[in-house]
Amino acid sequence: MNAESPNAVDRVEIDAPLDLAFQGVVRLVVGGIAEQANFGFEAMDDLQLAIERLLAETESDGRVKISFELSDGAVRTRIGPLREGSLTAALETNGDTTTLSLARILSAVVDSFGVEPATDGQIVVRLEKLGTPRP
């Protein structure tokens, strides 16, 4: 974190292949980001789960940019561009409590999430996780 100002925002961005072989690398990066944000284990695990599950639901075989903004005990993440397709439907909360949908998982593990349009039928997914500091 930036020690110069308590309201400073640190930003990290990665460009990763959407290939199962790189999931461990993405998980490692997310863990490092959570460490920098001084998250406790549960908050770190929640953020890792949210990103892994979101990437597992994508219908793409290309690359994705994942950006992280760290500030005031929070990590704001932007993931995209991703193909809209079934991902948009998976992110809709329809009140169904019988299935473990992507929207239900994200609602449980991050503090907020949303979708914004990108180009050519693609979207960017925003996640925000407020940290639970380590003891």
Give structural attributes:
135 residues; alpha+beta; Heat Shock Protein 90; five-stranded antiparallel beta sheet; 34% helix
Break the fold down into its secondary structure elements and pairings.
Blueprint: E1 10-17, H1 23-36, H2 41-57, E2 63-71, E3 74-83, H3 85-91, H4 102-109, E4 112-117, E5 122-130
Antiparallel strand pairs: 1-2, 2-3, 3-5, 4-5
Helix pairs in contact: 1-2, 2-4
Strand arrangement within the widest β-sheet reads: 1-2-3-5-4
> Which quaternary structure do these chains form?
single chain
Query: Beta-sheet strand percentage?
Result: 25-35%
Roughly how many Å apart are the termini? 18 Å
Mean pLDDT: 85
State the helicity in percent bands.
25-40%
**Helix segment count?**
4
Number of strands: 5
Unreliable runs, pLDDT <50, ≥5 residues? none
Any guess at the CATH architecture?
A: 2-Layer Sandwich
Specify the overall morphology: globular
Determine the structural class based on helices, strands and strand pairing: alpha+beta
What is the H level of CATH, i.e. the homologous superfamily?
A: Histidine kinase-like ATPase, C-terminal domain
- Domain count: 1
CATH top level label:
Alpha Beta
Secondary-structure element order, as H and E?
A: EHHEEHHEE
Please outline the major beta sheet: 5 strands, antiparallel
